[in-house]
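Office hours follow-up: a student asked to see two folded examples consecutively, so here they are.
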Amino acid sequence: MSEGVAQDLGIVPGARAELRLPQGWSVAIVGDSRTHINYRESSTALLAGYHVGVTTGPFTAWAGLELGVGVVAQTSTVLPDAYSAEGIAAPCGGLGLRVADHAAIGLEAALSFVVLRRDGATAALALPAAWLGAVVDL
């Protein structure tokens, strides 16, 4: 889940899929969408990053930085549709608990600094996000 671009949208449910290499490099795709009173805001982004971490027994903690690009769309039945490209820089971190040989439960958080067009002007936003999910070692 993350916070929406529109000022009155609030928390937006979403999903994230990430591939992280043992060397620390990662690539992720993120998407979210929520309907408000008379519009829907949807966004998707492709991110690449680098992470460092520590593991003690079944526990893992890590931190990193991700950079990426994406698109935000607001569609409505009463207002003109609005679209914007976005540039993203996101410091992030997470915790994991190993539950099997090749599986863990992971909690990840990021504070995405986003530059995009909003209401006809360039805007810079700080958007928090968090995900809880399964981590599978390939």
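And the second, which I mentioned at the end of office hours:
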Amino acid sequence: MRRRALLSTICVVGSGCLGTPSSRNSQSLTSETTTRTSVVTTTQIPGEGVTEYASLSDTGKELFMTMLEGQSIERPSTEIPDQLWEAEHVRYKGQTYSIARSPEHNVSSYTLEVWQVNKSTVDEAKVVQYTGLSTDAKHAFRQALDTGSYNDGSLPEKLTEAQYVEYNQDHYELRVAVGDTRVWRLSVSEKSSQSTS
């Protein structure tokens, strides 16, 4: 299985670096390599490693067509649909196209987790009120609270400055993982002109 996120550090805002948390809200942040192991999915033709265009997701089809028009694309690895990422070749209208990939650069990424804590352990000087957050910060906080984490290329400033948020009379500790995501350049070239039977 491929590993696509490169973790730089895991830090609790205002209190130094931590290890990976061990609750159901914790995420596995793993190292990414520039090599990729080919994965043959059920949509590929056995022995050929060819993925049919029709089996790609809508986003995968859109990206493939952009490349087919002669434009290479650059995307963070996390934004490339799985089937397109795993495909060695794609068959479209009887033609087989090879997909070339090359690593370009890294972009910063942030993962926010929120952990409910006992008020008695909280330093009130490091608390911000939920009502005082910007719309973007509220969205990030609520997404982390509701789904376990918030992931983006940036984090609202208030959430990088505070260590705790008071929300509905409960206190939550903010934990921010700062990492890098590799950006890849993808392009296609025609491999053969065989028609499907």
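Two things to take away from it. Residues 3 and 33 are 7 Å apart (CA to CA). The radius of gyration is 21 Å.
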